[in-house]
Amino acid sequence: MPKKKPTKNPQIPGVPGPVTPPLEEPAEPSAPLPPKDDQRAPQLRTATAAAVEGPPSARSQQGEYLTTAQGARLYDTDHSLKAGEHGPTLLQDHHLREKITHFDHERIPERVVHARGAGAHGVFRAFGAAEKVTKAGFLRGGVETPVFVRFSTVLGSRGSADAVRDTRGFATKFYTAEGTFDLVGNNIPVFFIQDGIKFPDIIHAAKPHPDREIPQAQSAHDTFWDFVSLHTEATAHTLWNMSDRGIPRSYRMMEGFGVHTFRLLNDDGETSLVKFHWKPRLGVHSVVWEEAQLINGFDPDFHRRDLADAIEAGAYPEWELGIQIFPDTPEQMFEGIDLLDPTKFVPEELAPVQPIGVMTLNANPTNFFAETEQIAFHPGHLVPGIDVTDDPLLQARLFSYLDTQISRLGGPNFGQIPINRPHAPVNDMFRDGMHQSAVHSGVAPYKPNSLDGGCPFMAGAEVGAFVEVPVALEAATKLRGAPATFDDHYSQARLFYSSLTVIEQDHVAQAYTFELGKCYEQTIKERALGVIANIDPDLCAKVAAGLGLPAPKPSVPFDDAPMPSSALSQIGAQWPVTGRVIGIVADENSDLPAVEAIVSGLAESGIVPLVIAPHGGTLVSGSVTVPVSRTFDTARSIEFDALLLAGAPADPRVNILLSEMFRHGKAIGGWNDGITLLGNAGIADSDGVVTGEDGPSVLEQVVTLLASHRVWSRL
């Protein structure tokens, strides 16, 4: 694992720049500042992927002086050129025209879906366990591959909030020596639809109502529930969204799934079918619903801030990449599950997830637009040894992703944008087009040719060519339809729901009740209840009671109760606490020597300590000085995974903080005067509230509780 990079103040992530600015505006010319220690730019490569020697800042701004886009130095950028001080602006003002014209064209079309995102650089290291099933070079033992990952929400615009109830995108670009491989997935293993032709329908239904453009980034409205209650193949995905998986605690604590089944080819020409899984080493965790609502009001950038701050603090998030392996049979079925149906998953009890590598995200982008916004993923970016299947949703994505990049990024040369440039040599014979930044040589961009010496030549499989797996196709009749195995819309929803703990099932019922309670049309609520009845009658009864409606009976026969899958519940295990945030309430009358020791110890252990005080600056007691991270005005419970009370400041804002932490099931500890504050709040003897004679002993118990994410008995 890469070493933690030092920052100016490792206790408080969020440093805006690499140096502390002076009080007065600088007057002496100086070169552009370098990126912060936690930042990294795309590798220096030409548009055709040749490695380039040079400093990391080679693509950033140059020189000490402000210039035009053509490099002419400027003496003034505050005043336009006028005919006299009060006269009209002159058309000849080329600097004004250039500056305003560029500003007018700064924005590009946002993604239709997954518009709201955050990204990071990292490295993937292969274990070698995949060598038996694929010849992909980046999966051979010990190979390290640079990656860039973009996390996202599906429904909201770029300006929407992070902690909405929604599916999350989990897209990874592997810059392999054999070409770029994109694994474009979600944090939910099943999808709303089985066929890509339905994609415009589900997105049109889930997006804001077209007349008012509200609600933003939410599924709690009539058009969404109208669609999913009629199009019942969406049932399983909808249920996952209504579970705690729909409101993750952090991108760092989120699973990723390739959703589709892929075909792998090994060195011996043997094929296997696989599903890809990302398993976070910090575990899979979520926020509770009230907490999510507070987050979206107090910090709509919650998830992107959490990811960037963790990387800046050196708490690099990690995921293991694993695969479920299935025989490549003509039926493409496994244990009665159609592997080409993207609304189905395979329980891990039937096909264990086998780890094949680990990914570490260890650097933030240098520029959000240039990297996170312009990165272009495509399921058709494949490498030798990995091929697609006939999943009808995947087949449509192979067309759609390429098409949308051309529209969004201004033409077919989006692969030449630095963040998208391959790390393998490119000789594609493509020419011209918008934003062409390569300077092609030669006179024969066609095949066959002799004028360019026959170059480029065709490659064989023995020298690394990508060769589609030859799959036999049976004679068939052209039709619009789906196999009978796609008709089961409820069994996997039942499996998922039955695998959840009682607490998680209660959250599902509350989510359905809230979402349907936001619908206007009574018929849509009634129809949705009919779908829920086919998942679980008790769940339907709870939701119906909350809506004040009768609970319908199931309309499809129930099979035997499914065998629960332990991998589907988020509750019950112990997880690492690296990167968690602990708030410490203190003032000048608190036990500041203990606070100082706790802050230092937590920072060394990879936990982020934030001291919360009545004022900013520092807390001073004798020879002890403790930097303040948050004040009672700027702190809110949503930022902290646990809370320590080193004193008992008499302030109503502390009482609100304490009340929210308690309601949301978070660990709380106190000593000395902090015990008095807990007693006054009436929670001193509650589960997950610990007291002791000194700070270190209380901290130890709180960290132990933190490994379970929440005090579940309190919820």
UniProtKB/TrEMBL annotation:
Would I find Iron among this entry's keywords? Answer: yes
Boundaries of every Catalase core domain copy: 67-455
Q: Which reaction does it catalyse?
A: 2 H2O2 = O2 + 2 H2O
Concerning InterPro entries, the annotation shows:
Catalase, Catalase_AS, Catalase_clade2, Catalase_clade2_helical, Catalase_core, Catalase_haem_BS, Catalase_immune_responsive, Catalase_large_C
The UniProt annotation puts the region (Disordered) at 1-63
Enzyme category, top tier: oxidoreductase
Which intervals carry biased composition (Pro residues)? 13-34
The record, for CDD domains, names: GATase1_catalase (cd03132)
The EC code for this enzyme is 1.11.1.6
Instruction: List, alphabetically, the PROSITE patterns matched.
Output: CATALASE_1, CATALASE_2, CATALASE_3
The UniProt record lists the keyword Translocase? no
List, in alphabetical order, the Gene Ontology terms for molecular function in this entry. catalase activity
Give the family this protein belongs to, as stated in its UniProt record: Belongs to the catalase family. HPII subfamily.
Function, please?
Decomposes hydrogen peroxide into water and oxygen; serves to protect cells from the toxic effects of hydrogen peroxide.
Query: What protein name is recorded for this chain?
Result: Catalase
Q: What is the lineage of its organism?
A: Bacteria, Bacillati, Actinomycetota, Actinomycetes, Mycobacteriales
